[in-house]
Amino acid sequence: MNRKVIALDIGQVCVQVRGELCFAKLGYRSAAEVPRELFVLNDEMEKGRLTADEYFERFRELTGSELDKEAMLEAFCSIIAAPVPGMSELVARLPEHGIRPVFFSNTSCLHLERVRQIFAGAAAVPEGVYSFEVGAMKPESAIYEAFEQRYGRPALYVDDRPDLIAAARERGWEAHCFNGAADLEKTLRNRLLVHCN
């Protein structure tokens, strides 16, 4: 086991995910108005089963939207809002302390590109295991297996969703439910015996 690798979820851990921003740009007032088929379509995109062009074409077919590709791309990526306070700075410091952060996320290639644009700490995280590459989403076992094959069990896995934490713990992973950058820094000091200031 590589004791210095940590697996970092992206959404609500590194960057804020705000569905309402995306929905508004698509013409919906709330998630309740969004057709269920669009959430299924999003999952297909995040599993790498659709290219961006295929996704947007299917989106138009389902909704009758007349948005051009550029407007649709902006709407789709606007769900990636801003960095979670303190996380960019914390993640950027991890390599100095012998910690190798690796992204571990259910995401699409388009959303990952947006994350790398707005999350300055991403420069310290060149590697990752992503649902769109693996073809499976957490909590499916295939994505955890893909991480283990590439990096072994991480010293720590950080996510905001208790169900995904539970799935990791069933595999014997050390896992921490994210509750802000300060809490994570404290956890890293306690579990990995490093000082991240």
Q: Give the helix tally.
A: 10
Order of helices and strands: EEHHHHEHEHEHHEHEH
What is the strand tally? 7
The end-to-end distance, rounded to whole angstroms, is: 26 Å
The neighbouring-strand order within the major sheet is 5-4-1-6-7
Overall residue-averaged pLDDT value: 92
Portion of residues within helices = 40-55%
Regions with pLDDT < 50 over 5+ consecutive residues?
none
How much of the sequence is in beta strands?
5-15%
Shape: globular
Using only C-alpha atoms, the radius of gyration works out to 17 Å
SS-based class? alpha/beta
Please summarize the sheet with the most strands: 5 strands, parallel
Describe this structure in words.
With 197 residues, this protein is α/β, with parallel strands linked by helices. Helices cover 47% and strands 14% of the residues. The chain has ten helices and seven strands. The chain has helices spanning 19-25, 36-46, 52-63, 69-77, 87-93, 109-118, 131-134, 141-151, 162-170, 181-192, and strands at residues 5-8, 15-17, 80-83, 100-105, 128-130, 156-159, 175-177. The strands form two sheets. The chain has a five-stranded parallel beta sheet with strand order 5-4-1-6-7, with helices on both faces. A two-stranded antiparallel ribbon has the order 2-3. Helix 6 (109-118) links the parallel strand 4 and strand 5. Helix 1 runs antiparallel to helix 4 (69-77) and helix 2 (36-46) runs antiparallel to helix 3. It is globular. It starts with a strand and ends in a 5-residue tail after the last helix. The model has no long low-confidence stretch (mean pLDDT 92).
